[in-house]
Amino acid sequence: MINTFQQMLSYPFLVNALVVGILVSLCASLLGVSLVLKRYSMIGDGLSHVGFAALAVAYAMNVAPLTVAIPVCVIAAFLLLRMNENSKLKGDAATALLCSGALAVGVMTISLTTGMNTDVCNYMFGSILSMSKFDVQISIGLSIVVLILYVLFYNKIFAVTFDETFAKATGTHSDFYNMLIALLTAVTVVLGMRMMGALLISSLIIFPALSAMRICKHFRSVIICAAILSVVCFVVGIYFSYMHSTPTGASIVIADIIMFLLFAMVEKIKER
Question: What transmembrane ranges does the database entry give (predicted)?
Answer without folding.
Answer: 12-37, 57-81, 93-116, 136-155, 176-193, 199-216, 223-242, 248-266
